[in-house]
Amino acid sequence: MSVPEKGYEGELHYQYDSVSKGNTGSVGLTLGENNLALRLEGTKRYQSDYKQPEPLHQGETSRLAGSYQDNQSANIGVSWLFDDGYIGIGYGEQHRRYGLPGHTHFHDHEDDHHHHAPIRPPLIGHHHHNHNHEYPDEQHQHGIPYIVMDSKRWDLRGEKNNPFTGIESIRFSAVRTDYHHDEKEGNEVSTSFKNKGDELRLTFTHQPIWGWHGVIGGQFNQRDFSAQGEEAYVPSTKTKNHSLFLLEEYQLGDFRYELGFRQEWQSLLNRETQKNNKQSASSISAGLAWNFTQDYFLNLSLSHTKRLPVAEELYANGVHAASRTIEKGDPNLTAEAANNIDIGITKVTGDIQFNMSAYYNRINNYIYGQFTGTELNNGYRSLQYVQNDAQFKGIEGNIDYYYNQDSLIGISGDYVRANLLHNKGNIPRIPAYRLSTYIKHSFTENVIGQIRIDHFGKQNKTADYETSTEAYNTVSLGSEYIGYLDNTDYTLYAKINNIFDVKGKDSTSYIKDEMYLPGRNIILGATLTF
């Protein structure tokens, strides 16, 4: 955050979307004098059940019951800036109420999405209260579950430049989050989740040593999780994680070399059994960037990383309705070990610009939920967390051609293939390949337009208990007008997404068989900065 030259600056934004009859408004204001700056922000968003291209099942409406959301958030932050650094403090709140579409009962009640990590509002965020909305009748008539969530966050951050010989800067941050949500049907709470977290981070940027310039630091995280109710499928746990890391860079002519190292220690206490799972992990990486000719860069990175298992994978034991599964953890799981290679080429100037890369990731002891072969009522499947070797490989990129100073045509795409080794099947919830083409044109200094066509491929490389998703295409149009009034800038924009109201499903969704993605959507908005 910086102190505004004129003592204040701000922005206003409003957006309407037709597919959910949604309204979003936000305001931000920065005030400052001398070395002090104050930042205030607030956002309010309400969207009703969105409209699908057609009902998924006969006799239903095209509105996806339970897809509504009502969000309010707010933050305040104060920073003191001095010649060689700053210190700032912030506080934020977030309040949400949203439905859980596509879910059915298991026994008497329903579960939620995977909301066991704390929601983290930004340092300077949003807030606004309005509880006068009438929520969709389907919520009560058909017992659609919904979430009522509250989150609070405190931040303290600072930086000191040139504190002593050999050190260019010191940075620190301290964050505390307090997260709570209730899963409800009607006015009754079925399950409550609480998550309190603390994070401390300290880094030192050192001056070059034999040409190497970089950062050394440490981080501490603590997570206190608890759940009560019919579908508290993970026991109360306390996780402590601390780590040390080093990132270094060396420039030699057209070559830039990078090295990284991280050592991590974790203890995860199951409060019900009082058993403490303690593990550690080491990760290392190396990279090379080569400016081999004008405007062209070749990038290569190699890494060996480890990921420690989380509480859900170790201790889950019950219904997880977000994925329609009965999950069983394994306290004997060990760290995943991944070996990754990533290579890419980039051109950053000229009439033709592009960025393309390919990667291969081999993971030993990959953790996933294995289908046990048992299906229970309402389509719930039994999963056991196990470990097997796996591989991920993919490509992604984009190419833009500027055929004059006002226009460009581009293509982009990505593809990933993920499977278990030794003929043990596919990894679930992997995105289908995507190919896109777009044209952008500046009609005047103030008016810009764009057309975009997206092709989403068929995904039939699925896990045993998953269904495939069909390919589909969408066409979108957009335009914006940029204007100026004295010391005020404004932008007016209009978009039409999925013009032809095409049916599509998201292969990464837990509930892809219960819903279509949103249909045709007209978006109108305005932004004002002053």
Automatic annotation (TrEMBL):
Its main location: membrane. One of its GO terms (cellular component) is cell outer membrane. SUPFAM superfamilies: Porins (SSF56935). PANTHER family: TONB-DEPENDENT OUTER MEMBRANE RECEPTOR, TONB-DEPENDENT RECEPTOR NMB0964-RELATED. It comes from Proteus mirabilis. InterPro entries: Beta-barrel_TonB, Beta-barrel_TonB_sf, TonB-dep_rcpt-like. It holds the Pfam family TonB_dep_Rec_b-barrel. Residues 128-499 form the TonB-dependent receptor-like beta-barrel domain. It is found in: Cell outer membrane. Keywords: Cell outer membrane, Membrane, Receptor, TonB box, Transmembrane, Transmembrane beta strand, Transport. It comes from the Bacteria. It is a multi-pass membrane protein. This is TonB-dependent receptor. Gene3D superfamilies: TonB-dependent receptor, beta-barrel domain.
